[in-house]
Structures are given as C-alpha cells and as structure tokens.
C-alpha cells in the first residue's frame, strides 16, 4: 500500500462534503490507514498478489475497520489488539467487492477498472480467494481468549454476506420480490458486516455479551438506514451535492426499496405506466427518470422511505444508548452514524 | 449428504483395483464418511447452498481428512477432536476443485457436470466462497489450546494452494517453464495440502513440533511422488487398469514433468519433431500420442521419472521413520502411501 494513501480516507470524507470529522473516528481512521500502510501484500506470484494490493490500495472510506477500533475503545483503553482484526474486516469487505464485481460484470470500482477488467476473470476469482484467506489470517491475530468468539462472529457474518449476494442475484430474475424480502437482502448484504465490525471490536475490548449484542444491532440498523438513504439519494438527491449521476437505479431497473414498493402499491394506469417504462428498451433516460420519479412521488414513496429510514435510525440510537458505558463515549459512535447518514448538526 | 454415499469412498478404492484397505485407514475413512453424513449444508438460499451439498456429495477418495484422523491417532487415542477439522480440510479441498473448474473451464468433475455447468459461473464463484468460509468454521472447532497453531497452518497452506494454481495458469502461457519451477508448482498446488492434513492431525493429537514437521514433509513428498506418478500413468499406464483414456495430457499439450523435461533435453531432429507435434492443429490423436511417447522413451524420460518419483517416495519413508512413535503405527501411514502409489505388497 503506497504512502500517498495515508489520509486518503479522510480526503474521501471531505470530498463527500462532510466538513468535520469526529475526533475519535478521525483517530481510528488514522490508526487503520497507518496500519494498512505497514502491510505488504505483493510477493511472488505477482499475478496472485498484485490485484490484492491494487484492491486494498484503491481507497474506500475504511468505515468498517474504524468501527472495530471505536467499539474496542468503548470498553478498553488498549486498542492495539483490535488493529489487525480490524484490517481483517476491511480485507474481507474488499474481497466481497472484488467477487461481486465479477458477478455483476462491473467495469469500474471507485473510479478505477475492476480487477477482472484490468486483469481477467480468473485472476479476480483467485486473488479474491487469497484475500478471503488473508482476511482470516488477520482475524486469527485476535488474542487467544477472544479468538473462538471472534472467529465465530466473522464466519457466520461471512456466510450471511454470501447469502445476501445470492438473494440479490436471485431477485434480478424475479418480478415479485416483496419489501420484506428486500429488507432481508440488504440486511444480509450490507448491514450485518457493519454490525459484526462493532461486535468484534466490542469482544476484543472485553465488552459483556449484552453490550456487544446491542452494538451489533446498532450497526445493522444504521446499515439498513444507510442503504435506504442510498436508494433515496439515487432518485431525490441534489445533483450538485451528489457524487454519482442521479437516476442510475431507475435507468437500470434496479430493484430498490422505491421500485419494489411502487410495484406493490401502484394500481390502474399508474401500474401500466410503471410496467411500460420497465419494459421499454428505447427511450430518453431523462424522460424515464422523470416519469418514474413522478410515480414515486405520487405514491408518496419519498416520504415513506424517509419514515422507514428514520425508524431504523431512531431504533439504532435507542439501542446504543442501552450500552453500559459513559453516555459521552456513545456520542462518538452516534456522530459517525450521523456522518454516514449525512446528518449534520 | 445422502446416505448412499456412506462407504462410497471405500467403493472408489475398490474400483481403483486396490484390493485391500489398511485397517486404520479404513476406520478413518468410515469416521469421515459417517461424520459427513451428519452434516447439513442445504438451507435457504438454495442457490448458494445446494451446490455445496452437490460438490461434497459427489464422492472423492477422502484421502486428506482420513490423513488428519490417522495422524491424530498416531499421538492420541482420542480422535474425536480431529473429526470436524478433518472435514474442514475436505471442504477446503473441494472448494479449490470448484473454483479451479471455473478457471479451467472444466465441464466434468468425477463423472458429473461441474457446478458452473449445472448452474452457472456466478453460482460457482459464490458457493465456492461460502465453502471456504464453511471450511474455516470446521477448522475453528479445533480445541482452544491448538486453535491458533492449526489456523496458522491452514491459512498458510490455503495461500500456498492459491499460489500453486496461479503458477499453473501462468505456465500455460509460457514455453520456458523449468523442471524446478514445475516441481515447485505441483508442490504448492497438490502436495502441501496432504502435508498440512497430516500436520494438523498431529497438532490436534498433541504431537511435538518435530514430529508434526516430519509428518508434513512425509505428506508433501508423497504428494510430489503421487503427482509424478499421475504424469507417468497418463502416458505409460496399462489401458485396461487405467481409469482415464491414455494420452490425454499429450493431446492437450499439458505441461507435465515428461513434457517439460523433453523440452529441456530434446535436440536436433527430435526437438523439431516435438515442436511440430506441439504446434500441430490437425492430426490423428493416436498418432500424436505414439510419436510423443516414442520421444519420451528415446530420451529415457520414463525411467528418469520413475527414479525421481522413487526418490521422493524413499525420502518420505525415511522422514516418517524419524517420528517418535511405535514403528508399527507408522506402518499404517506407509501403507496408505503405498495404496496411493498403487504399490501392492
């Protein structure tokens, strides 16, 4: 990992328009960035290890490993034991992106060619496998007294993430996905790893079982709220503040919370119009985006989405407040959640 | 895993014309088959877990997990602690076959369609990932006092196996692979996992470090000898006793020990003839097989291969004899090596 990457995660946050960084979070990010800098991934055969370095060096917000550090810090002043396991979580996360990009045939990730584009599919498969094993090597540095417990959380979460990706692929060929199924899918694919990062940090920090569990729930609820926000922003974001092009999900018929709800709720001519746009093969993208956005608004899905999202957020905050530590140290994690949800004070 | 599979591994050995089975090995096989029978892999989403059941239920000789059990048994009467870790080794081995089959575009494995043929590439990638995580879950059941050590051997071996596969793919596009490089590749791709199976069994059995290491070396040497035998049998086997069609490696220009040696040793008209056959696109397979077999024989490569193979075998036997246990219990493992090398007494 090259030195130019130090603070890169900070720069990403600043470029997202997030003008302040919580101090504890900033420290955790710095710890992770510095630790990653000291790791050497490239060795022979280069065809196997270079893509790992490329993937890990390609940025990312380093949210998950920072959460491991912050959760550990809640219960123990000694975060050093959590650093390598935290990197294990980040390596695992990047492994899932690498393999997902093959399955989704994605050409670009974080503004750069994906591994299967820069190299080829076989390289992406095999380097991903090696990354998953590497992730376990980092997780295995957990102090002996917590190793069994941390391994258990890590492996169970890993399988859940695979299940989430499988459901996501299954849903592509189905037109009858329910909102409940969608929520389950995003919970598995996105939310549980945020929960697991916090739980693993808590375990290494010596937290009691109920506190670790409440952190897990806080993480998954924030993850769900974050994913719903992602679905909302694709349609209703302010283009000048939004990094991506608005309406990408609409153009690709992506089954988001909004579309699945619309398919459930729309009736009569609205339903016919929705189905016509979904089936359309030749159209002006801007026209499709405007039409479907109109349907979402008419059905009240923007406010419904915000309501559900706020529900998860509020539940997350209630849950984390139950943890037996100084209320002030809890505030640091809540601020990170706010940062993720782009809620500025 | 369905009940019809119980004893299937025994039937495979009998069908290979191996008329006797060492008692300890037979017991270990039975332990593994029975344990595998009790494991449930299928749950929702079926698209993820069915291919795992399919892969694990598709037979195989169960050599590696049986070696875990036998190695543990050398040092401890209590093999029960080794059973689940042994299954972890078998699941890992089958994961590598699953992903290798995608990379090699192989339509058939053990007489049945490969996962990417029966389902598709994405399913094969994702189910393989889940299998690797499952393998770790089984390895993680190792008793706490040995867990760190076993995890370390398992992860390091896993990375070596990935390296072996990478070298194997790299070699396909190269015409200057040396014999030393080839030996390194087969050591990584095939031999180290046999060594690791024995070492992990030994560790769980409470073996001292030097004994575990000598078992590892015994396993890798037998693995190398076995792979050289595989290369030899493809060309020089008795067709009536050989399961596959003779000459498959020759027809596909596979870079075996024989071909790499021939490319190094052949000169003048022999070299020209060899290169002509390697470049040929239209030919009668039997003619190519006869011609290249003739070149191998003329260059003395059949006896050279046997010599090198026997060297590894003898070295393996010398190494295992150094282990501090009753010489008779060593004999069981030597008999398994003989069984693998089809050396009948």
State the main characteristics.
homodimer; 345 residues; mainly alpha; two-stranded antiparallel ribbon; 16 helices; globular
In whole angstroms, the N-to-C terminal distance of chain A is 35 Å
What radius of gyration of chain A results from the CA coordinates? 20 Å
Q: Fraction of residues of chain A in helices?
A: over 70%
Report mean pLDDT of chain A, rounded to a whole number. Answer: 92
Which two protein chains have the largest interface (Cβ within 8 Å of the partner's Cβ), and how many residues from each? A-B, 36 and 36 residues
**Biggest sheet overview of chain A:** 2 strands, antiparallel
As residue ranges, the low-confidence spans of chain A are none
The fraction of residues in strands of chain A falls at under 5%
Number of E strands of chain A: 2
Spatial order of the strands forming the largest sheet of chain A: 1-2
**Form type of chain A:** globular
The number of distinct helices of chain A, counting runs of at least 4 residues, comes to: 16
Oligomeric state, counting identical vs distinct chains: homodimer
Structural class of chain A: mainly alpha
What pattern of helices and strands is seen along the backbone of chain A?
HHHHHEEHHHHHHHHHHH
